[in-house]
Amino acid sequence: MVSRADRSLFSEWWWTVDKFLLVGVLFLMFAGVVLSLAGSPPVAERIGLDSFHFVKRHIFFLFPTIAILIGVSFLTPRQVRRAALVIFVVALALMFLTLFFGHEVKGARRWISLAGFSLQPSEFMKPAFIVLSAWLFTESTRQSDIPGNIFAVLLLAIVVSLLVAQPDLGQTMLTVIVWSAVFFLAGLSWVWIGALAGLAAGGIVLAYSVFPHFAGRINRFLDPSTGDTYQVDTALESVLHGGWFGRGPGEGIVKRVLPDSHTDFIFAVAAEEFGILLCILLVLVFAFIVVRGLSHSLKNEDAFVRLAAAGLFLLFGVQSVINMAVNLNLMPAKGMTLPFVSYGGSSILALALQMGFALALTRRRPETGRLTLRRMRPAGAEV
């Protein structure tokens, strides 16, 4: 048992970190291992690998994931900001190199090999970018002579340019949505709102005109007869096949022909084998993490902490909603993982960094103003 009288670094962390948020994230990690056992063997067998190849790798990545989550949560807000700057610069450099030296998969260059591991730099860029944007918005409001909003827009333009060049329109949309939400929370004027809305609409129209695969996904969503909807249709069949209580662990049938059952469509596998009730539980856990995190962040008196933490939890929540909506055919298909549940080394490590930042920012800290007042107040004086 950790005593409150103990002034060690671990004791301070233990009594200030939100344990409910931590348990929620760890629950999702555990669910990811269980669902990896359900969804990944058919995929591994189809491509000639050992049945538990992806399960073993998922568990292998789980150890550094937990270490990153816990370790990063020890940081102070200033250390979070500095770490985000370093990670952002490195991730941008790797994203640029990926365009020339990355692996091409289905016409996209998003992964680069480092020390024998395949890394997706854009996954690590997202949380760092949100933290830096929050800091720039905060500085813009604190000091009118610092053009923080302009710098934030320039950073967004650089990030969007690199993502579109890969191309990765799903991550582009996710990043822009969350960045815009943080900007809104920072108190942007209606002029900015109108300009951003116009740019977003123009960007969607341009992407529809320039990228055939993007246009194809929207067309198939609006009218399934215009193209191949096999994966989405199979995912829906998997959900319906499970009913309320599922067919049981390892008893899924439709999952065996679902191409990305271990990554983008793991939610459909959960529905088939464990039922709609488990899916509802997962939705509730995701919602709990986001709502509790936003509640903590919006109560914080530090503007930077408030914006950065809110942005990180929104990033987590929007990504979750997009993945589950695609599984249920509620929006056009996008290659996006379900946080901590889907298989993917870069994804789970980057999410650990993201939620580590969020836990660090939402830790309970003494209010500086009140502490100063108490020190200055004479003994026995009334408030």
Please describe what this structure looks like.
The protein has one domain. Helix content is 70%, strand content 3%. It is built from 14 helices and 3 strands. With 383 residues, the protein is mainly alpha-helical. Strand 1 (103-105) and strand 2 form a beta hairpin. The longest helix has 34 residues, at 266-299. A 3-stranded antiparallel sheet has the order 1-2-3, covered by helices on one side. Pathway: Cell wall biogenesis; peptidoglycan biosynthesis. It comes from Prosthecomicrobium pneumaticum. Belongs to the SEDS family. FtsW subfamily.
If helices are DSSP runs of H or I spanning 4 or more residues, what is the number of helices?
14
Can you summarize the main beta sheet?
A: 3 strands, antiparallel
What overall geometry do the principal axes of the alpha carbons give? globular
Indicate the proportion of strand residues.
under 5%
The overall pLDDT, averaged over residues, is 86
Total tally of structural domains: 1
The number of distinct β-strands equals: 3
Rg on CA atoms, Å? 22 Å
Uncertain spans: 368-376, 378-383
Strand neighbour order, sheet with most strands: 1-2-3
* Helix/strand/pairing category: mainly alpha
How much helix is in the residues?
Answer: 55-70%
Q: How far apart, in Å, are the first and last alpha carbons?
A: 36 Å
Give the SSE order as H and E letters: HHHHEEEHHHHHHHHHH
EC number: 2.4.99.28
GO cellular component, one term: plasma membrane
Transmembrane segments: 20-38, 59-77, 83-102, 114-136, 148-165, 177-210, 265-291, 303-322, 342-361
Protein name: Probable peptidoglycan glycosyltransferase FtsW
